[in-house]
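lol forgot to send this yesterday, sorry. struct tokens for the thing we talked abt
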């Protein structure tokens, strides 16, 4: 933990003065030389029952929205919680303060770059602390079971290995400077429809192989200080009062030492939630306020149990230095964070199609640009709901292009009249059409189709100008019936506040695209795993996860269905080749080594992906991502890449022993640049 200078000023009731010797003797938890566990125990032992209960729930009022008040008598600072996961969203402040609006975490996942994820998280953690808050609610690492989910943009895709690696790195970054990361939503929070009541029926194997591993990684590798329990029921039990999830799995099996906070109104009981181990109730004290005191006085909840609920949060705050050096309001390094936001956006854009090398555009040859579409007038800074950031500034698409190509005439049309837009496109050297969606918390999309006349707009412009580039600003997959009729498609996701500058950099080749899809793009709405009403949104309040392990690309592979664009797909302005795969057993695991070569004429980065096929008797999908490596290469340069596999990679969840079981038999290792482009293949026998 970084040692900052002792903060003496009191800001928003959060700060504590340096403990004098006498104060430390009277209040030993002020002694920073002691362990966080001991300090937390000493503090709780000094509290009255009323003080303890006051610390179990948020207490919003006229000045605060997401706040646990201080206990001045004991030197307990106030505790302020901010939304994430793509920058500091709605927090304790009234009104909400501006922060850097980063590209959506779906864009971050597309980078397949854990180092970049850590930098992304560090920026969020730094701004959360600078804006005087203790917790950033993020990252959101729920698996994209249903692409129509209104919060798809907040997550990191459909694969638990990718989500786990990227999420753990993001968490480490958030927590580097003393901000607590709160990973969410635990667990299987996969739809917005009936989200507060839906009962998800998930078999034990599917739950443990698909919907829990990345949360385990967030705890064991990311060392998340907090976990948010989610709205839904799983197999009949609400997650915030589910001892199998909160105690048995999270604490006993994974060793989680932090605190568990409910989602906004996700608690449904006092005794049940307390016994399951939910530590902090949000929004208010509906269950953990007066009802908790009554339960204690009636003997339904012991005061010792109340102590046990308090200890993890206080221990975490002590461990993160939030008692000794509470966060204080500080200015944001706006210019520095603007530059970072631009780079994150550039690195997260996926080049889906680029026929006849339409991109990059040549700024010496392009003299006129028709900038068209409903997502062309303004920057798309993010999705809607609790993740919405008020940006410190924005770069809209028009000024972004004008600044990049000052010698070209750029004409803007909002695309509301496809015929008019087509006429404009016909007179331009290049047409750039910006389409997209507006995902938001609280509602799922009725379809993956672009709304309004966006499809007709793209078709009309593409027919008018053969040099048409489509930039898609969406939170997840969208249908593209026009895909084969346009030469270039750039998936920009929600680019954040540097939208215009970042898109221009990629279009004109200042940045060579290297991102890959973290989620499959289907060709039709029906081409998704949960494609019946019983599966999504559910019937009579029950969502049946009957697709089992077949989620995302696993389903497409198992069903022999061709996607529009597969998981892991992404092009570059250069080309790459794979060769020389060698696989050997190493202890309980294996090591795969291969060569990646840049066969093109410019520097670029390739994301090498390793997929593992299990023996047929194991009952697994045809192939699963088990590792990846982003490799930067100069033209003509080659590099040997090594990806390690451990025993867990060769295991399945055994419902008889309720544990991971290694599988024996013949495996297949495949390596390439997407789940459907795997030129290297090698057998591997496990005995």
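and heres what i got for the seq, position by position
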């Amino acid at each position: 933990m970084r040692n900052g200078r002792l903060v003496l000023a009191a800001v928003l009731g959060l700060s504590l003065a340096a403990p004098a010797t006498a104060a430390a003797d009277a209040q030993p938890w002020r002694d920073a030389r002691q362990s966080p566990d001991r300090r937390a125990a000493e503090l709780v032992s000094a509290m009255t029952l009323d003080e303890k209960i006051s610390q179990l729930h948020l207490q919003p009022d006229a000045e605060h929205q997401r706040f646990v008040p201080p206990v001045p008598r004991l030197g307990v600072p106030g505790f302020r919680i901010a939304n994430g996961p793509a920058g500091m969203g709605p927090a304790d402040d009234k009104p909400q303060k501006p922060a850097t609006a980063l590209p959506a975490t779906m864009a971050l996942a597309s980078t397949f770059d854990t180092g970049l994820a850590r930098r992304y998280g560090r920026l969020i953690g730094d701004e959360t602390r600078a804006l005087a808050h203790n917790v950033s609610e993020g990252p959101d690492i729920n698996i994209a079971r249903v692409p129509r989910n209104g919060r798809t943009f907040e997550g990191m895709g459909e694969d638990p290995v990718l989500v786990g690696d990227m999420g753990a790195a993001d968490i480490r970054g958030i927590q580097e400077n003393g901000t607590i990361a709160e990973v969410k939503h635990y667990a299987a929070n996969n739809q917005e429809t009936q989200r507060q009541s839906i009962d998800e029926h998930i078999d034990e194997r599917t739950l443990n192989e698909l919907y829990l591993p990345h949360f385990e990684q967030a705890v064991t590798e990311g060392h998340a200080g907090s976990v948010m329990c989610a709205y839904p029921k799983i197999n009949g039990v609400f997650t915030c009062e589910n001892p199998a999830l909160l105690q048995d799995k999270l604490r006993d099996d994974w060793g989680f030492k932090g605190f568990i906070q409910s989602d906004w109104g996700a608690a449904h009981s006092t005794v049940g939630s307390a016994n399951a181990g939910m530590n902090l109730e949000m929004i208010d004290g509906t269950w953990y306020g007066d009802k908790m005191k009554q339960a204690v006085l009636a003997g339904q909840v012991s005061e010792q149990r109340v102590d046990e609920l308090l200890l993890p949060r206080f221990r975490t705050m002590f461990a993160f230095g939030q008692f000794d050096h509470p966060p204080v309001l500080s200015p944001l390094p706006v210019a520095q964070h603007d530059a970072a936001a631009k780079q994150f956006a550039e690195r997260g854009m996926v080049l889906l199609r680029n026929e006849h090398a339409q991109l990059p555009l040549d700024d010496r040859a392009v003299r006129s640009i028709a900038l068209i579409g409903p997502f062309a007038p303004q920057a798309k800074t993010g999705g809607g709901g609790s993740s919405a950031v008020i940006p410190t500034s924005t770069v809209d698409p028009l000024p972004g292009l004008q600044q990049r190509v000052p010698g070209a005439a750029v004409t803007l049309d909002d695309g509301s009249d496809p015929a008019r837009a087509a006429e404009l496109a016909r007179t331009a050297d290049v047409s750039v059409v910006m389409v997209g969606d507006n995902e938001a918390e609280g509602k799922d999309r009725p379809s993956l189709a672009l709304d309004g006349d966006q499809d007709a707009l793209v078709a009309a412009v593409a027919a008018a100008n053969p040099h048409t580039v489509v930039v898609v600003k969406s939170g997840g997959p969208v249908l593209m019936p026009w895909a084969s009729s346009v030469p270039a498609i750039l998936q920009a996701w929600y680019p954040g506040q540097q939208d215009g500058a970042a898109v221009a950099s990629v279009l004109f080749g200042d940045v060579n695209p290297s991102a890959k899809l973290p989620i499959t793009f289907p060709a039709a709405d029906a081409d998704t795993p949960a494609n019946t009403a019983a599966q999504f949104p559910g019937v009579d309040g029950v969502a049946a996860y009957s697709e089992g392990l077949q989620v995302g690309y696993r389903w497409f592979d198992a069903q022999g269905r061709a996607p529009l664009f597969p998981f892991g797909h992404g092009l570059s302005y250069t080309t790459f080749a794979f060769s020389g795969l060698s696989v050997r057993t190493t202890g309980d695991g294996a090591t795969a080594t291969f060569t990646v070569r840049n066969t093109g004429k410019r520097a670029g980065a390739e994301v090498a992906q390793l997929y593992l096929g299990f023996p047929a008797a194991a009952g697994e999908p045809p192939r699963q991502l088990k590792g990846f490596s982003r490799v930067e290469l100069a033209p003509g340069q080659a590099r040997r890449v090594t990806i390690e596999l451990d025993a867990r990679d060769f295991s399945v969840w055994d419902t008889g022993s309720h544990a991971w079981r290694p599988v024996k038999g013949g495996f297949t290792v495949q390596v390439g640049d997407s789940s459907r482009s795997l030129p290297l293949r090698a057998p591997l026998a496990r005995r």
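DSSP finds 18 helices and 25 strands in the chain. anyway ping me if u want another try
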